[in-house]
Amino acid sequence: MTRFASPAHDERVTSRVGRWLGIAFAVCFLTGLLSHGIQHPPSWFTWPSSPVWLYRVTQGLHVISGIAAIPLLLAKLWSVYPKLFERPLVRSALHALERGSILVLSGAAFFELITGLFNVAQNYLWGFYFPTAHYAVAWIAIGSILVHVAVKLPVIRRALAPPGVDADRRRFLRTTWLATGVAVVATAGATVPLLRRVSVLAWRSTVDLPVNRTAAAAAIEVPADWHLEVVDGEDVHRFTLDQLNALPQATEELPIACVEGWSASAVWGGVRVAELLRQCGIAPGVDVRVSSLEKGGLYSTSTLPGTHTGDRRTLLALRVADQPLTPDHGYPCRVIAPTRPGVLQTKWVTRLEVL
Ligand SMILES: Nc1nc2c(c(=O)[nH]1)N[C@H]1C(S)=C(S)[C@@H](COP(=O)(O)O)O[C@H]1N2
Ligand SMILES: [Mo]
C-alpha cells in the first residue's frame, strides 16, 4: 500500500511500541489494583505499614506508567491506523470480533488515560464518580489487551524476531522513546524528589507540602470547646488540645502520597495513636474509625486498620516541621500513618472510634 508509505506503518514498529505499551499498562493496572484495595479493602486484604515509602512508590509508578502510556498509545495508533482503511471491512466472524475488540481496547485505554490525566490535574469535569469509573474501565482495558495480545501472538513473534528494524523505522521508534521520556521527566517530579527541578509540568509544586483540600473549601470551623473523643463501645474519653499536647510527644518523618500522583515528605510531631489508645485502656492493633469536623465530604472519615494503629509510627499529628498545624494541614489534629494513600490521612480529626 503506497498510500501509507511511512516507515511507522509496519508490524515491526507496532510490535515494539506495543511491547512497551503493554508493560506500561500492566504496571499501571497492578499498582491501580493495589491502590483500590487499600482504599476499599475486601476482608482478605491487608496492606502493610512498612516500608513507610511503599505506597509513595506504588502510586508514583501508577501515575508515571500512565503518563508514559499516552505517547506510546498515540505512536501505536499512528503505526496501525492505515488498517482502518483495509477492505473488505470484515472478512469473517472472527475478524469482526477481533476488530471489535480493538475498538473496545482503544476506547477503554483512552478513557483510562484521559480520566487519569484530568484527575492528577484535579479537574473533575465529569458527572460520574472518578474512582469507580476508572476502576471498572481498567478491567475492560486489561481484558481486551489480553485478548488482543493472544490474537496477535503469531504476528508479534514474527515482528520481534531478527533481523530487527532498519534505520528509518529506528528513527520513528527513537522519537517515540524520546517523547515518552520527556513526558515522564516533565511530570514525575511531582513524586520523585530528584526530578523536582526539571519537571516543568509537574502538577504540584512540591517545594513545600502541598495542600489538597483547604480548610475553607471543606468549610471547617473549629468550635471553641473542641476536644478529641476516643470512643470504645460505651466508654468515651475526651482530650482537649492542651491535654493532647501534655501526652508523650513523638516525631516521625512520613510522606503524604496523594492518589493524584504527588508526594512529599515532612517531619510530623504529635501523639502516637498506639500511645493514645493505651491511655484509654485500649490495646493497639484494633481497627479505628477516624472522623473529622468536615461535614459530608468523601474523605471526612477513614478507617485506620489494626496494622496501622499497632505501628508506633502512626501519629495523631499536632505539628508539622516543628510548627502547630495550620488550618489547611488539619488543625487541631490529623492522622498521619506510614505507607497510606493521602486520601486516608484524615485532617481536622475530632473522633476516633474503636471498631
Ligand atoms: N477531612 C479531610 N481530610 C483529608 C482530605 C479531605 O478532603 N478531608 N483530603 C485528603 C487528601 S486527598 C490528601 S492528599 C491529604 C493532603 O494533606 P495536606 O493537605 O496536609 O497536604 O489530606 C487528606 N485528608
Ligand atoms: Mo489526595
Task: Describe the protein in words.
Helices cover 43% and strands 15% of the residues. The chain has 355 residues and is α+β, with helices and mostly antiparallel strands. The protein has 2 domains: 2-195, Fumarate Reductase Cytochrome B subunit (Up-down Bundle); 228-354, Alpha-Beta Complex (Sulfite Oxidase, Chain A, domain 2), CATH 3.90.420. The strands form 2 sheets. The protein has a 5-stranded mixed sheet with strand order 2-1-10-5-6. Strands 3, 4, 7, 8 and 9 form a 5-stranded antiparallel sheet that branches. Helix 1 (11-39) runs parallel beside helix 5 (167-187), helix 2 runs antiparallel to helix 5 (167-187) and helix 3 crosses helix 4. It is elongated, with a radius of gyration of 25 Å. The structure holds the ligand Nc1nc2c(c(=O)[nH]1)N[C@H]1C(S)=C(S)[C@@H](COP(=O)(O)O)O[C@H]1N2 and molybdenum atom (MO). Residues 212, 258-260, 342-343 line the site of molybdenum atom. Keywords: Membrane, Transmembrane, Transmembrane helix. It comes from Actinokineospora spheciospongiae. Residues 223-354 form the Oxidoreductase molybdopterin-binding domain.
Quick recap:
The chain has 355 residues and is of the alpha+beta class.
Key structural traits:
single chain, 355 residues, alpha+beta, Fumarate Reductase Cytochrome B subunit, Sulfite Oxidase, Chain A, domain 2, 5-stranded mixed beta sheet, 5-stranded antiparallel beta sheet, binds ligand MTE, binds molybdenum atom
